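Continued from yesterday's entry.
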Amino acid sequence: MTHIRRFDHVGITVADLDAAIDFFVALGLEVEGRTFLEGEFVETVCGIPGARTEIAMLKAPDGGATVELGRFRRPDHLPGSPAAPSNELGLRNVSFQVVDIEGAVALAAERGYGLVGGIGSYEDQWKMAYVRGPEGIIVSLAEQIG
């Protein structure tokens, strides 16, 4: 018997919620909803008394799993490692399949976000790149080419 029913979402805590939303929307995600949460539920789940957070849920065009972006309004967020290398322990990246990797990388660059390394090719089947987005989030972009 398995306890997992399906993959639901990835949650990412950010300092600038609007910038993070803009970045992911530019890549093609759609805002599903945005709200504030506080009270017993949030305090219990997060283990932070008095917590108040604003979240935005974004979904991919295919309707699959979602990305939850959250900003703590109370207490303030704790600093992270926005320049963490790809091999730092923890959540390494959020990955999306794209239709035009060069176009997606150029779009990110127009917004001030650059490649972690370069665009690589895997066995003439995939092109892949890591882009460091807002708050240092590494976003993996992959294009099927074969």
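--- second protein ---
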Amino acid sequence: MAKITLSKLRHSYMPNPSSDADYALKEIDLDWTDGGAYALLGPSGCGKSTLLNIISGLLVPSEGRILFDDKDVTDLPPDQRNIAQVFQFPVIYDTMTVRDNLAFPLRNRNVPEDKVAARVAEIAEMLEVTDMLDTRASHLSPDNKQKISMGRGLVRDDVNVVMFDEPLTVIDPHLKWKLRSKLKELHQRVKATMIYVTHDQTEALTFADQVVVMQAGEIVQIGTPVELFERPQHTFVGHFIGSPGMNILPAVEDGGRVLFEGSTVTLEGPATGAGGKTEVGIRPEFVGISDTGIPARVTKVSDIGRHAVVETMVGDTAVKAVTDHANLTQGEEIHLSFRPDQTRLYRDGWIATEAAT
């Protein structure tokens, strides 16, 4: 297990990059503590797999350094970094039994057989596959194959980091929650440093203690799941995290006031900075339906069980609310209220209000 430090890291697939646009990864400075559970979250093409490949040694960065426990490993190949990696598709030997698959990484390092047997039994018990140990891997279901692939990554107790690259992509949706909860349980038991790469917010938020949200090669926020939901530092985070995502609404500043479609909006705190493209961010969970407030027209009501998602139009702008008012009808005229301590101003995408106290 190791503390991982990324220092002034940048990467371009072009031989002579001349501008920021030429870099798949913009400058990254990051510290991950020993034994933590982390996620790299973002859409396809945002740079998360590039970053994972740099940490694993499959790519050498154009600029910057990678350190494990303050030891520079930037130029070391993967086999000298002491890492384990679990991929989208299970990496196992179909002709081997589950026992031999789990034992392979240890036998490959000449670990004594008594220690191999003990460690395999321990990991099998954690994964709940003890009754499958003598089964050939070719006979396993896809989710159990991925369990074994995870076990191969976890069986060594001397790795610096275990990295998961979208490991649940090929798993049936109804089985994903089982593997997600199992992986979280495994982290709590083995205490290894783990990095989980995904485009799925549910996977990231349920697994990680800290989530790194990436967009266009740049880290836009690092935080706990609660921090990402409650106070997005960038409009991309607000939109990407949550279902439905944050309402991002055009705003105008006028003499100390902030106006949305002609209505004054009360913010969580004083606005900071000046100029730029101004927008108001408010999560649907904090948009209320009231007798007075911002005039709106209902366009759609979706009953999602305990709540309803009410889609409205305020002037030319769509606003969503998560509410108990499932009895509203399309075309109905209503009023919206924004909870002030959850209403934030953004300038050019970045948060521009002081936090509520």
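The chain has two domains: 4-230, 244-351. The domain at 244-351 is CATH 2.40.50.140 (OB fold (Dihydrolipoamide Acetyltransferase, E2P)). Will compare against the first tomorrow.
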